[in-house]
Amino acid sequence: MTSPASGDLPDYAPIPPSARGATLNDQGYHVGRVERNLYWITDGVYQSAFLTTPDGVVLFDAPPSIGGNIQRAVDEIAAAEGVSNRVTHLVYSHHHADHSGASSLFDGNVVRIGHEETRRLMLRDNDTARPAPEVTFGDRYTLEVGGERVELAWHGSNHTPDNIYLHFPDHDTLMLIDVVNAGWVPIYNLNLSEDVIGYMEAPATALSYPWTHLISGHLGRLATRDDVLVHQQYVADIEASSREALDSVNPVPYYMHYGENVWAGVKAHLDTVTERAAAPVIAKYTGVLAAADIEAFTTTTTFLIMQSLRLDRGHLGPVHP
Known about the structure:
Elements: E1 30-35, E2 38-42, E3 47-53, E4 56-60, H1 69-81, E5 87-91, H2 97-100, E6 111-115, H3 116-125, E7 135-137, E8 140-145, E9 148-153, E10 165-168, E11 173-175, H4 188-192, H5 196-207, E12 213-215, H6 225-248, H7 252-258, H8 262-285, H9 295-311
Parallel strand pairs: 4-5, 5-6, 6-7, 11-12
Antiparallel strand pairs: 1-2, 2-3, 3-4, 8-9, 9-10, 10-11
Helix pairs in contact: 5-6, 6-8, 6-9, 7-8, 8-9
């Protein structure tokens, strides 16, 4: 394993205060109350949540980076509140291993719940760290444990084909993973999302629910409705800038220059469109959203949205006569 010299690493803008998260304890995690008996856990990068009930603990996602600290956090709260620390149910938000890879730490008696596509994809991936859910649903499922209620819903593909919305109506909370990063830009390619249009529509769906707290799956604090609005504006600015760049960049010189090497012409043309579209967004959000000045993040997200405009929305230019 190689390590870069500190002098070889670039410097970036300071993190805005709005992006700073909770202080971690000596074991590397923070656990906090969301509302009443709903709690969240973070290691500063990933998030999980759990609900304590008279019949046991319901866990929502099991990121491997938090790993054994999930049970430690549950134990901490259970001891303080005088409730059971036994995890009886585990709900998957979606199939990705970075949010579910610690599932196998919990024994086979745990009831695992997820979307029917989550089960299909987990069985396909055949990862022993992520046992597939036994209880599945298509569009909606109401989970009732120990007098508590959680509404699970699938509103179509977004980050992944199976990513669901988890609404806690009695706790003023929504959980939606890998869409909005509270105080931060998405990482590469819209948080590595598979459905651009679905991803771009997901925040509006989230805002259609009544909630105050959003568990977003990443970073060190809970999100607010204002965080979702800022995220929507960031994405809308990228879309508008991409439309302008597609309309204003003349592709002909790139293809003329490279002649029969058509892929070189494609690269030069689309790279120019992407850079022109991303530049004003990076400038606008540096100091507003953390990591906006890490150009690869906004640039790859811009490329993905620009390509979706071309391929999904038909923003291609005139048809050859």
